[in-house]
Amino acid sequence: xxxxxxxxxxxxxxxxxxxxxxxxxxxxxxxxxxxxxxxxxxxxxxxxxxxxxxxxxxxxxxxxxxxxxxxxxxxxxxxxxxxxxxxxxxxxxxxxxxxxxxxxxxxxxxxxxxxxxxxxxxxxxxxxxxxxxxxxxxxxxxxxxxxxxxxxxxxxxx
Length: 158
Description:
It contains five helices and three strands; from the N terminus they run ααβααββα. By secondary structure, the protein is mostly helical. The chain has one domain (2-155): dinb family like domain (Four Helix Bundle (Hemerythrin (Met), subunit A)). Strands 1-2-3 form a three-stranded mixed β-sheet. Helix 1 (2-27) packs antiparallel against helix 3 (94-112).
């Protein structure tokens, strides 16, 4: 049990550091470069940050909130990993994207900081993935954020 508690503490700590990590990496990239296709799929740094923000605010956080407040909720599936691109606004200030992401991460942390084992194990049904726990969703959000952070670093040679 101690290993699991240790793991969750590390999970929280890493999740907590992600907004600052994104802000630091993006601050090191000249603003003129934010709208140039740098990722392997041609997306820009700005578009990647919008995507990360959108998934945190519109997918991960709402699902986690439902899992923690409802009994075995059925969680909506989105058509694809890139479903939020239809609402992408290239003119949205980067500061807004970073601030929205940081707020969503902080809200997630407020929900999970004091969870007991039963809370971490609460679950909801997500059609593509099946029954998934709160812990799985936190891990998924963290993995998603880290993956795109590394994508931005690699695209910019950092």
